[in-house]
Amino acid sequence: MLFSFSALQALLLAFFAVRTASIAIGRNPNDWIAPYKRGEVLQDIVTWDDKSIFINGERVLLFSGEIHPFRLPVPSLWPDILQKIKALGYNCVSVYIDWALHEGKPGDFSAEGVFAWEPFFDAAKEAGIYVLARPGPYINAEVSGGGFPGWLQRVPGVLRDNDTAYMEATNNYVQKISEIVAKAQITNGGPVILLQPENEYQSFIDGFPFPNFNYWDQVKDQYRKAGIVVPFISNEAYPAGYITPTTEADIDIYGHDGYPLGFDCANPTVWPDGKLPSDWWNTHLRLAPSTPFSLVEFQGGAFDPWGGNGFDKCLSLLNQEFERVFYKNNYGYGVTIFNIYMTWGGTNWGNLGHPGGYTSYDYGAVVDEMRLVNREKYSEAKLEATFLHSSPAYLVADRINGSTSWTTSPDIIVFPATTETTKFYFTRHTKYNSLDSTSYKLHVSTASYGNITIPQLNNSLSLNGRDAKVHVSDYSVGDFNIVYSSAEVYTWKKYNEKTVLVVYGGPNEQHELAIEDTSEGYGSAETIEGSGVAIAQKTGYTVLNWATSSERKVVKTPSGLYVYLLDRNEAYNYWVPATPASYGQGSLIVKAGYLIRSAVTDGTTLSLIGDLNVTTPIEIIGGAPQGLTDLQFNGESLDFKQDDAGVVTATAEFKKPTISIPDLGAVEWKYIDSLPEIKADYSDETWPDADLEKTYNDKYEQLTPTSLFAGDYSFHSGSLVFRGHFKANGQESSLTINTQGGSAYGHSIWLGDKFVGSWEGNDVTTNYTSTNTLPNLSSGQDYVLTVVIDHMGYDENYVVGEDEMKTPRGILDYTLSGHDKSDVTWKITGNLGGEDYVDRARGPLNEGALFVERQGYHLPAPPADDWETSEGPTTGISAAGVGFFSTSFDLDMPDGYDIPLSFVFTNETESAYRVQLFVNGWQFGKYVHNVGPQRSFPVPEGILDYHGTNWVGLSLWALEADGAKVEKVELVPQAVIQTGFGKVENAPLTKWEKREGAY
Ligand code: GAL
Predict the structure, then answer these.
(1) What architecture is domain 393-612+615-652?
(2) On the chain, which terminus has fewer CB atoms closer than 10 Å, C or N?
(3) Is 304 in the pocket of ligand 1 (CB under 6 A)?
(4) pLDDT value of position 3
(5) Fold of the CATH domain 850-979
(6) Whose CA is nearest to atom 6 of ligand 1?
(7) What is the largest distance, in Å, between two alpha-carbon atoms of the chain?
(8) Signal peptide span per the entry (predicted)?
(9) Which pLDDT does position 6 carry in this prediction?
């Protein structure tokens, strides 16, 4: 049914009739089959109480990482990220879904190819990872429009409100995407256990009737009616208390977000006073005492704007120390739904980002943009997540307020979490950002031995600078009770023949651990490896006291408990690999190196899958079958030894591959001008007329006789070109023009073939008025202005009522001296076809307005025979304009390795130019030389064909009169990882075909 909802809709229909067979913005929700009645219990697999969720009746800690599959258009690499997250000890991922990529044109929903979700859900299940689905429709996420497709600029009424036009605009997407998500719900055997409707719905303009629960109800109903049965969770940006189970929002589980150190990465060593959340526990009790304490987004890094500081600095700010202090603070408050934003950030390829960010969305996350796991914060996160999953008491312990009375030092504060037996002491500096080394003794309170001040044997404990600890008492390790431990627990496992406990401390710290042991022969615990462990017997328990050092120490009790006392840096090398397709933890404890992905035991065969960056000793300290006959690493049998305690040792050899990467300075390039518009014989006859008398944009005033807002003409990405025709009268001394493209955008203007001027752009300016002197024109002659404007994406729509997403792109105003504005008639183009985008494989946003993009010359195998042969982008172009350099080369990368490659630009001179990097047709870089900061553009395998011919295209837009050249661009390997991951399938690398009607 074609559903027309307003006169404006009808207008739109007529307007787009030429290019568009039918436009149906959404459907009436009442048309849907509604299996759902409010208040019904929809499923009983995912339930919750005040402490945690349950899955199939079992309490579960959700330790979750945020990832956005759409930021990597190579579905065959999604399992790689999921496995790396599972290896961290996480059991969940949270994913946003970006509406703008699925419904580029109203009514035209598409989730095929790289945009399909089924492969992702399958991969999550296979990796043993639950999914929290966050389909919006509004998501923020530093994506263009915050996930709103560009055509929402034309929707009358307030966005993110129950305005009929807005609700109807969302219907089609919500229904279609929900059908996909619904199939992947746990009730249908899939991994999806929770859904978050909307996003951070708590900011609104002054005077706005808010919160609008009517809207909220409708959003929930849309999902329920489309078959979503899993619980809903909210994510307020801060604990505002609007979207809770007890307000009219009636959310199932209340959650909020937290980015305590913010996003200014300029001073990565500065932790300002007062940034550590200090009242979250009491706030939780006030707002949602009946649901688990949920941090639906907690800071895992930071975004970085154009001209920003670069992700290295964000990584330093939000590093392993940040994880220790801030995450452990959250554990102190009892978080049991904990999602870390971002855990892998990815790439804003193909114009999907908002104007507040550049191509990289690395985020300084634990897994880097290239999917490498060599950041220390990855290892720290693994220690923490693995500990919590090894500690079931964590989920049920009561939280009490923090106090400095738990230690002998007022400079140390402890947040205890207590059960009748097990207690956790979340310990940090009272002044959270202190850099001091503080000595203290801790008062633990034990069930059988009363209060004990530890260490008992020796010295004190110490907290060195930005650190936090989780001490424990009455911590059960299988059949053993650890009376207390100041050393932090990594994990433990009980096997038939022995129990293994792994603990660690920071470098050169004193620690003490006591094991309750009243069995026969107790008291004769012995150090079986390393030295320096003082062992003393107290009534009922054995005390171990030691200083951590790089030398590993292992103590064995007569009853079969093996305690590994590690230095934290050593602990980083330990893994608890799971078997594929199991949501739980694995049972093996393996010391290895770079990455262990999974482990499968089959009889007396043990098979590890992992990655190496060097030759690595492997040691399985627990869980290998007795009498192991075959130890495989990535399918190859290794020589190994197994000792009496079952410990297996072997070496996995790193074999250095030979790789050959083309020298982009030496390959042959082809060149074609990409601004034919400025040539005298160029005809724009077939271009869309910019003749809409009144904009559809209800938020921004139109100052020109016809709308020159690109969104009115269905152009939403990359760049825009306008052509302004007029007849001269000889009085045209100047052109004043106000353009808008978002942060870091630029514009360039030509009159006929004469360059008139550019706005070169900077990090903050989103629109600019330039006054340009024009040459003398001949009265009575026809002239044409060509205006090229960069489109940096749409603004997000954070504050309800502001409708910031509707901020137009294009020409806002102009004055041509000696003329009425209406003397100029305009044509406009963005990507060829606008919302009827041509390249269905690469989606609605990948292309912009440049001639080469309209023709599809950025795609593999363009018709370049007639193009000039060139030495490449380093030759540059000699005048303001746009040129396109294209080359191709073969890659034959070795199998069994992950060798991420980046295109690296040199930037030593000042010159205003903009480059788009196309790799096999996929836009994987927008480089603004005079703004920065990004110079290195990773392009994943699968976009680069590692076993075939690759086509690289660089569009070079020179904004200065004397042109520009790329100083240098190189293809550089970023790491050589021997991987057990397996083959990567290419994304669709569809080739150039002649585009009918391309102008
Ligand atoms: C949150 C928002 C996310 C993302 C994040 C910053 O407020 O929910 O979508 O924008 O901030 O990276």
Answers:
(1) 3-layer Sandwich (2.102)
(2) N
(3) no
(4) 32
(5) Jelly Rolls (2.60.120)
(6) 141
(7) 110
(8) 1-22
(9) 40
Q: Is 199 in the pocket of ligand 1 (CB under 6 A)?
A: yes
Strands 767-773 and 442-446: unpaired
* pTM attached to this predicted model: 0.95
What would the pLDDT profile of 451-493 be if each residue is shown by its tens digit? 999 999 978 999 999 999 999 999 999 999 999 999 999 999 9
| pLDDT for 390 | 98
- The per-residue pLDDT for 459 is 84
Give dist(CA 554, CA 988) in Å, integer.
52
Neighbours of 28 (CB within 10 A): 13
Give 321's DSSP letter: H
| Terminal Cα-to-Cα distance of the chain (whole angstroms) | 34
- Say if residue 355 is preceded by a cis peptide, omega within 30 of 0: no
Sheet holding 58-60, edge to edge: 46-48, 53-55, 58-60
* 676-829 and 850-979, same CATH topology: yes
User: CA 843, CA 264: separation in Å to the nearest integer?
Assistant: 32
As to burial, measured by CB atoms within 10 angstroms (0-12 exposed, 13-18 middle, 19+ buried), residue 269 is exposed
Q: Which residue has the tokens 């003490």?
A: 512
Q: Is the CB of 302 under 6 A from ligand 1?
A: no
- Residue-by-residue DSSP string for 884-898: EEEEEEE--PPTTEE
Q: Say whether 677 is catalytic.
A: no
pLDDT at position 240 = 96
Scanning the structure block, which residue is given the tokens 């293809």? 971
Name the 3-class secondary structure at 541: strand
Question: Residues 6 or more apart from 889 whose CB is under 8 A from it?
Answer: 662, 667, 949, 950, 952
Amino acid occupying residue 647? V
Ligand 1 center from residue 140 Cα (angstroms): 6
The Cα–Cα gap between 448 and 13 comes to: 77
Instruction: Enumerate residue ranges in the chain where pLDDT < 50.
Output: 1-35
Helices (H), 844-913: 851-855
- Residue closest by Cα to atom 9 of ligand 1: 141
- For the stretch 606-641, pLDDT in tens is 999 999 999 999 999 999 999 999 999 999 999 999
Buried b (16+ CB within 10 A) or exposed e, 695-709: bbbebbebebebbbb
Strands 868-870 and 669-673: antiparallel
| Residue 188 CA, ligand 1 centroid: distance in Å | 30
Question: Whose CA is closest to atom 11 on ligand 1?
Answer: 141
The domain 45-374: what is its CATH number? 3.20.20.80
DSSP 162-193: --HHHHHHHHHHHHHHHHHHHHTBGGGTSSEE
Cβ–ligand 1 distance for 516 under 6 Å, the answer no
Say whether 529 is catalytic. no
Report which DSSP code applies to 347: B
What are the extents of the domains in the chain? Answer: 45-374, 393-612+615-652, 676-829, 850-979
Pocket test for ligand 1, best of 142, 297, 798, 805 (most atoms within 8 A of CB): 297
Report which DSSP code applies to 326. I
Q: Was domain 676-829 assigned CATH 2.60.120.260?
A: yes
Query: CA–CA separation, 526 vs 511, rounded Å?
Result: 17
**pLDDT digits 0-9 by tens, 6-55:** 433 333 333 333 333 333 333 343 444 444 555 567 899 999 999 999 99
Binding site membership of 140 for ligand 1 (Cβ less than 6 Å): yes
Q: What are phi and psi of 913, to 5 degrees?
A: -150, 160
Query: Looking at residue 9, what is its pLDDT?
Result: 38
Distance CA 842, CA 101 (A): 10
DSSP for 732-789, please give it: --EEEEEEE--TT--EEEEETTEEEEEE---SS--EEEEEEE-----TT-EEEEEEEE
- Asked if residue 684 has its Cβ within 6 Å of ligand 1, the reply is no
